[in-house]
Fold these 2 entries.
Entry 1:
Amino acid sequence: MKFNDLDIINSKLNYQILLNLKYVINKNKFIFSEEVDFLEKKLKKLSHSKYAITTGSGTDSLILSLMALKKLKNKNEIIIPAFSWLSVAEAVLLLGFKPVYVDVDLQTFNLNVEEASKKINKKTLAIISTSLFGRSCDLIKLKKICKKKKIIFIEDAAQNFGSKINKINSCSIADITCTSFFPTKNLGGYGDGGAIFTNKKNYYNRILKLRNHGQKKYSQSDMIGLNSRIGSLQAAILNKKINTFGNKIKKQVKTYKSYQNFFEKNSISGFPKYKLGDSVSQFNILVKKRSLLINKLKKNKIDYKIYYPKPLYKQFKQKINKKIFLNNTENICKKIISLPFNDHSNERHLKVLHILQNIINKNKDYFFEKKT
Ligand SMILES: Cc1ncc(COP(=O)(O)O)c(C=O)c1O
């Protein structure tokens, strides 16, 4: 059983996309074209941000955002979640900042805002939050804290693009928001791509140059940048996919709620409850006996993933972090499992629920029982 129905989603769009690609190929303008301008305009509107800049990937978006910050003397610490995809730690380390790891909440798998707040000191330059699995972090609270402490707030929205908090688009809250168009993301391309959103003109101007070798004009650079531009072909694909993006999120919400109802009916806990506005792109659950459950899933040919098996402080051979041990992060890494995320109305999803029910009937002790 496939992990998601990307094959179905993409096959429905491929005819239209191929026509678009043919048009772009015939024009022979592959970088900085009207397709890229069009995509940036659409992204700006969708995210309710003043500025939207496309980039080469979600990882590049994080790197460029950090490059855009004015490095201040004695301010080199960046607070990040200990449980996330490794790009966030990678970007911080690559630019020579010190990552300060903060534990996450067991209920949401996102940065614990109170813990993050306690780690702020004179050396803190910024906080980066990650909104994992399509569930927004408490961005409003974080924004208030960052404003009060005069530090920069960056949001990694690679997994929750399209989410809302109190009807506000989640990409318009932080000082700088990064996202990814990796194929499996909410808005997924046919290859790598990313974007940055901001309401602040100074960041916009800097990032615009930074993604193109720091150039002011052709061959005139006043800062060291990257080559991180989305191509016209990728932009043309995303311009088509963005039209069906809203529907895709509605379906994701229904799939998530279907899993939530299923486990609640079985009196099983260990997963975050759906919150209005979240774009919920995956269903992750903490289980007591993960390897036994995996054996059963394998026997029944059900695909699964482990997001993520290792805390970020154990990545990249960071010797300095050997003493760090964050309880919730360690716990989640050992107990989390991601179940297939196919459309709720699809036979694939119903089959997964059927097999899970059989597993639960015989082995309920694999799961955490809901306390009554
Ligand atoms: C939370 C998070 N941050 C950053 C990234 C990096 O995005 P990309 O793969 O486009 O570089 C990803 C993508 O997997 C992600 O899930």
Entry 2:
Amino acid sequence: MQEFQGKVAVITGGASGIGLGLARQAAAEGMRLVLADVEQEALDAAAAELRAGGAEVLPLRTDVSRLEDVEALAEQAWARFGAVHLLCNNAGVGSAVAGSVLAGTLANWQWLLGVNLWGVIHGVHVFAPRLLEQNEPAHIVNTASIAGLIAGHLGIYTVSKHAVVALSETLHEELSRMDTMLQAHVLLPGPVATALTGARRNRPAAIAHEPDERDIEIPGRREWLAGHSTTIENGMDPAEVAEHTFTALREGRFYIYTHPWQQSHMALIGQRCADLLTARNPHVHPYA
Ligand SMILES: NC(=O)c1ccc[n+]([C@@H]2O[C@H](COP(=O)([O-])OP(=O)(O)OC[C@H]3O[C@@H](n4cnc5c(N)ncnc54)[C@H](O)[C@@H]3O)[C@@H](O)[C@H]2O)c1
């Protein structure tokens, strides 16, 4: 899609960070907005800010891990605006709070996969048939992460993001075989300065008091995670991520990279591919 003026964007996790960056960019492009987020207060503040800038905004409290919430989101988006042209399945939780594969509790697995993976599954499952039927140029952008392309380090979060990449690639493949103007994309940011390190604020009440991890220590991991939080705090401005995203949509690019230094991640991706292609055991990168 080249022209976004007057079109409709639905953005999950739109009250903060990358989602809010996407919403601001969409508003600047003249789009009408449906903002979906589990945090009511942040949602109201985001909607007020965007409206003050002249945008038309429908804020809807939505827990993307619940199918009925995502169905209601689609229902209300079409009821209000009559069409949707951009769906950003962006809501996510992690990354330091995610827990390692060995030590993470099942409650954490369910929470992480519930939001990061099932949230995207629900978005695609509910919106794609409507977007196909609408038969207008439209985009689904799934927010994964560079963690979705390389192994290790971020534990359950890594697992969830690999799944989002696989889901998005498969969606792209299926859409490409069809006679449709609906396109799929996967957003692959490196560190972005958002509230992600405080994602625990959105842990469901039922598990709020459960420990994040069982008593299994992986040497060096905790120290690395502490540094990783600082890396995120000093990360890219979400506005820049949004700019890269809209440029990629205009250019019809499926893989949306954000960080120029992602070249260094390319070495890690290359290493993983080489291990796969030669059936070597996966390379274990030091915590650094
Ligand atoms: N910040 C980074 O460095 C980084 C890097 C790569 C990918 N990502 C991904 O970007 C996406 C956005 O995260 P962010 O960094 O902007 O963090 P953020 O915490 O600032 O924003 C995430 C938003 O998702 C919302 N959310 C959480 N659980 C939800 C649920 N169940 N239903 C609906 N909304 C929910 C939060 O309330 C919040 O507004 C996530 O998918 C994250 O994994 C972030």
